[in-house]
Amino acid sequence: MPSVLPLGDPAPSDGLLPGQALAGAADRAFGLYVHIPFCAVRCGYCDFNTYTATELGGGASQDAYAGTAVAEVDFAGRVLTASGLPERQLSTVFFGGGTPTLLPAGDLARILAAAVDTWGLAPGAEVTTEANPDSVTPESLRVLADAGFTRVSFGMQSAVPHVLKVLDRTHTPSRVPQVVQWAREAGLAVSLDLIYGTPGESLEDWRYSLETALSYGPDHISAYALIVEDGTKLAAQIRRGEVPGIDDDDHAAKYELADELISAAGLGWYEVSNWARTPEQACRHNLAYWRGDDWWGIGPGAHSHVGGVRWWNVKHPSAYAARLGSGASPAAGRETLDAETRNVERVMLEARLVTGLAIPSLGGLGDTGRHAVAGLIADGLVEPGAAFQGRLVLTLKGRLLADAVVRRILPD
Fold this sequence. Notes:
Elements: E1 30-36, H1 53-56, H2 62-82, E2 90-97, H3 105-119, E3 121-131, H4 138-147, E4 151-157, H5 161-166, H6 175-186, E5 189-196, H7 203-215, E6 220-225, H8 233-239, H9 248-264, E7 268-271, E8 274-276, H10 284-290, E9 294-298, E10 303-306, E11 309-313, H11 317-325, E12 331-336, H12 339-350, E13 357-358, H13 368-378, H14 384-388, E14 391-392, H15 396-400, H16 402-409
Parallel strand pairs: 1-2, 1-9, 2-3, 3-4, 4-5, 5-6
Antiparallel strand pairs: 6-8, 7-8, 10-11, 11-12, 13-14
Helix pairs in contact: 2-3, 2-11, 3-4, 4-6, 7-9
């Protein structure tokens, strides 16, 4: 089953935000995340808040979902205005899931149109949808492009059939070059998502997947280590000994190979797990998360953040629809972050970026962070040249040990 929601304070039924959310809002970008909670099949490794038709039963309708999402867009517009937030156009919009393209392209276009009517799109705004390779057609991609979508992120995951089988992916490897071509013909930028460390995947399997993905000339690649979450089918298979467990050394070797091959193909890393052909083709929506900007999350289980106020919606699509149908906020809970927590989160996220952290800003954490820099240089975890210029930027070794670097920076 999908992962549980965090604990927090009760969220007000009117959704109004406290004054803290207003401070500095005019200087922060504003984005929209739209969660589409439907999948044709639940992948064995997935613990996202997604549902198949069997899991949903008759309690929620994919056909009605676009209308429900539009209702939250309208609600969000009213809440932000009533809370006193300044008017801001959308810098980014990201449709994720689940499989957004399991809905008709016209439904996704309808949700985007409602968002544009409510806030407008900033010049050059990035509008992305995730998609499974077997969930799009040339026609559907053209509809999305005509509606204002600018990029598509395909869940390729692997080019090796036995790896896809372990992951319960439903597409065949031969489908990926087709959909990349269709997206290009529609005028969409293309990102490919890959997963490494699947049980039974050899280093040569991973090399083949990387080389195959790069041969398609994507604008962007994400490569994520497989994490086995409790409660998933894959976790149960590992526990029963049906497939081998996860090996940290295997993950490290595969990450190093990914960086080597992707960099050689002309894409540069900008976040530990992400590479782009040019800085302009980095995923600006995800950068907004890592930089602590504002976004509203539409959909069941979606999370939002405005000015240090964070909230999350009820999980089940039926409960979500019922809340909005009654005119109430769909939020299940929220938290207001204090300055120390926000600073810690800033360090945790910005340390993962190629732009790194401003070393003087570590003083806000006490002396621990600044005193740690010399040791991090000596251990080969951060770039000496960048450090001498006042920024903490991870080396390749540092990226492999990013969490450990952050622990050394933060006070006990």
